[in-house]
Amino acid sequence: MVRLGFIIGFIALLGALLSGLAAYRVHDQELALDRIALARAIDVHASLVQDRLTERELLARVASGLFRAPSVLKPNMLEPLRSAIYAFKTDFVVAGWVARLQPNELAAAQAAISAAGFPRPEIRDYNDKPITGLTQPIDVLMDLEPRSDETKMLPGRSYDQDPVRSAMLTRARVEKRSVASDPVPLLHPNGPIGVIVAAPVIPEGATVPVGFVTFSYELASLMLTNDDMSLFSVALKDPRREGGELIANDQGVVSTRIAAADGPAPSATRTVSFGGRDWQLSYYAKTNSARRAEQTAIIVAAIGFAITAMVCGLFGYVAYNNLRLSREIQVRIGFERRLTAVIDELNHRVKNILAVIQSIVTRTLRHGSDIDVARELLIGRIHAMSNVVSLLSESQWQGVKLKGLFEARAIPHADRIAVTGPDIAVSARAAQSLSLLFFELASHSDEGLSLVGKHPHITANWTVTGEAPDEVFHFRWEEFNTSEATRRPDSDFGLILLDRVAPEALGGTAKRFFTDVSYVYELTAPMETVVDMTERDRTDKILAPVRPVRG
C-alpha cells in the first residue's frame, strides 16, 4: 500500500509539472502565432490596397495620355475616352474634364457646355455664383461621366475657389504629373468621403497643361472596407488634421475620428503611395493576443491536471482490480493478431506514400532549379499529399469524396474554381494521384491575367458514363480567360504528373491543350480503378472489432 501510494504521488507530481510546462509553452506559442498571423494579414492587406491605388492612378495617366482633342472648348470632350475608361475600371464616382480657360474663352466655354446638353452652362464659382471681371486663367469643369440628374448640374463650376481641388490642380500643373487630393466629400457637401486624382493633359509640343482628366473614388473602396471576420480594423491617417483618422465600417461608410492620446496604439502602420503622395494606414488588432494566450494556457493546464487526476485514479483502479488481468491477456492475444495485419497494411501504405514523396522531392529539387521556386513548389506538393492523407485518415482509409480534394486547404485559389460533378468516393491510391494533379493545375493558374487585370475563371467537372462494370470516369479542367502566352508553363514534374503519372495510376489517358479562350486538361479512366473495391474490402477487414480469444 505504501509503495502504491508513493507511485501515485510521484505520478501526480510529474503530471502537475508537465501540465505547467505545457501551459507555459502553449502561452508562448499562441502569442507568437497570433502576432505572426496579424503581421501577415496586415502585409497582405497593405499590398492589396497599394495594388488598387496603383491601378487607379494608372487609369488617370492612361486617360490623359489618350486625350488628343483639338480644342479644350469642344463639346463632349470625354466622348473619345468614354468606352475606354469604362472598360478599364468602373468603380470611380465621377470622371471629369477640367479645362484651364483664359479670360477671353468664357463665352465659348459656356456655349460648349450648353451644346453638350448640360442644364446650367453658365461659368460660375464653386459656390454657384456667376464669375465676372475675370483677369487670369481659371480651371472649369467642362465634361464628366457618368451623367445623371445629380452630376449634370456640375459642369460650368470653377475649382479655383475650392481649397482642396484648387491645391490639387495647382500641384498637378506645376509638377506635370498625376496628383491626388486630400479626402473631400464627393458630388455634394454631404456626399461620401473620397479622393480625387488629376492627371494633366499637355498637348504635343506644348509645355503647359491645357486641362486635367480627373477621377473621383470613394475612400472606402480604396482602403478595402473593414470586414467583421478580419483580424484587425484599418484606419487612414487624415492629412487635414493632426491626430485625425478616417475609418470605414462594413457598409462602406467613412467617418472621421480623433485618436485619443490615452487610447490604444495601432498594432502596425503601413505607408502606401497614391497620386504623388504617401498615405499612412493604421492597423488595430481586434483581439487581445496576450489575454487569449493566457486563457488558452489556463485551459491547457486545466486539461493537464484533469488528465493527471484521471491517470492517478485509473492507476489505482487497475491496481485494485487484478482479477481482470486474465481477460485482458485474452484480448491482447487477439489484438496482437490484428496488430500484425494492421502493421503489414501500414507498411504497404507508408511505402507507397514515401515513394510518392521521394519522387516529388527528386523532381522538384532537380539540378539547376531555382531554389526559392523549388521550395515553394515542394512545400505545396507535400502539403497536398498531407491533406489527402488527413482526409483518408478521417475516413479510416475508406476513400475520399472527390469534392473534398478541392477544399481551400488542399489547393491554391480554390475560391476561383467552379466544381461540378457527382460526389463519388475515390480510393486512397486515386485520391493521392488526383490531389497532386489538382494542386499542379491550380498552382499554375495564378499567373494567367487578362488585359483587364482579372484572374482566369476555372471550371472543374467530371462525369461517369456507361454501365457497371464498364463505367468510365471523365474529368475536365478548363481555365478561361487565359492563353499559352499568359499562363505560367508547367514544370517538368508537372508535365510528367499530368501526362504520365496520374493517367497511369488510374489506368487511363490524359490530354491537355489550349483553345482560343482557355487552357484545357482532360483525364479519362475506368471507374474500377478510380473506386478500388479490393482496397476498401481489405481496410474493412483490418478495422473489424477485436474479439476475445476463448480457450
TrEMBL record:
EC number(s) recorded for this UniProt protein: 2.7.13.3
Domain CHASE residues, every copy: 140-223
UniProt name for this protein: histidine kinase
Root EC class: transferase
Swiss-Prot/TrEMBL catalytic activity: ATP + protein L-histidine = ADP + protein N-phospho-L-histidine
Natural source organism: Bradyrhizobium arachidis
Pfam families: CHASE, HWE_HK
Keyword vocabulary terms for this entry: ATP-binding, Kinase, Membrane, Nucleotide-binding, Phosphoprotein, Transferase, Transmembrane, Transmembrane helix
Membrane-spanning ranges: 297-320
Cross-referenced InterPro entries: CHASE_dom (IPR006189), Sig_transdc_His_kinase_HWE (IPR011102)
Coiled coil residues, start to end: none
GO MF assignments: ATP binding; protein histidine kinase activity
